[in-house]
Design goal:
By secondary structure, this protein is of the alpha/beta class. About 20% of the residues lie in helices and about 25% in strands.
Length: about 270
């Protein structure tokens, strides 16, 4: 953690520090032993190895003897020693990827973005999150998206990764009323480029999902064409009528009059 070099006599009066580490290799030869008792508020976002967690983060936190506010959002590659719950309330979250990962974060969650939640995420209200990525190889069903709407009430940007189709029993057709229409009242940007076509229908069909402020959509063109029935399906039109930006992949397509009538603001 090279940023710790700043916390010497030059910044000895610093009491608040917010750090975001995009990528950094752990180097055990670096030793930081400075006194951090002056820090009152510390925030850290870090995708790290368990070695970095044990060798850098835990020793760092233990030197913050007068810390009052601690916000953590960590992705770790294997199980680690849990932080003393007298210091910070945390939760370890398993997520699926090519590799097993663990998500450790402080509560309440104070960051505006959260990545790679799967079907097993906890029932916690994330009042500060406006950007969310969900990813799983197990289908996301109706209840999952109800939980997303409830747990992330201010969500503005949603990215979905899931190539597995939804349950055919629960995946109602366009003309049937869904048990509960899910509303995302603040969602403006939706990214569905790497999903099964069921999820395109799930979000754009206004009997299933209500998106009153959707202005940005990224989606596979063939999925969009199928769901909209070549841009004639009125069930989809209501959620698309305010779109101002549409990304449909790299292919160049000569669009029909129905296409432009479907998306009047493009």
């Amino acid at each position: 953690m090279i940023f710790l070099l700043l916390l010497d006599v030059r910044l000895k009066q610093l009491n608040t520090l917010n750090v975001v580490i995009i990528k950094q290799e752990y180097n055990p030869t670096y030793v930081y032993n400075m006194n951090l008792s002056h820090l009152k508020c510390f925030s850290l976002q870090y995708d790290c190895s368990s070695d970095a967690y044990d060798g850098e983060i835990l020793p760092l936190l233990r030197r913050m003897s007068n810390i009052e506010v601690l916000n953590l959002n960590l992705i770790i590659d294997s199980p680690v020693s849990f932080i003393d719950d007298q210091q910070v309330e945390c939760m370890i979250k398993y997520r699926r990827f090519p590799d097993v990962k663990y998500h450790l974060f402080s509560l309440p969650f104070m960051f505006d973005g959260l990545q790679f939640l799967d079907n097993t995420f906890p029932n916690i209200i994330f009042n500060h999150v406006i950007r969310l990525v969900v990813d799983d190889n197990i289908p996301f069903e109706h209840e999952f998206f109800m939980r997303i709407a409830w747990c992330f009430p201010l969500l503005k940007v949603l990215t979905v990764y899931n190539a597995t189709s939804q349950s055919p029993i629960l995946n109602y057709n366009d003309n049937q009323l869904y048990p509960t229409t899910i509303e995302y009242p603040y969602l403006t940007s939706l990214y569905l480029l790497l999903v099964h076509g069921d999820y395109v229908n799930r979000f754009l069909n206004d009997r299933k999902t209500h998106l009153p402020h959707l202005t940005v959509l990224s989606v596979n063109y063939n999925d969009l064409r199928n769901v909209t029935r070549n841009f004639t399906n009125d069930r989809i039109r209501l959620n698309c009528i305010q779109l101002k930006q549409l990304s449909i992949g790299p292919q160049k397509i000569a669009h029909s009059e129905d296409f432009y009538a479907y998306f009047p603001l493009l």
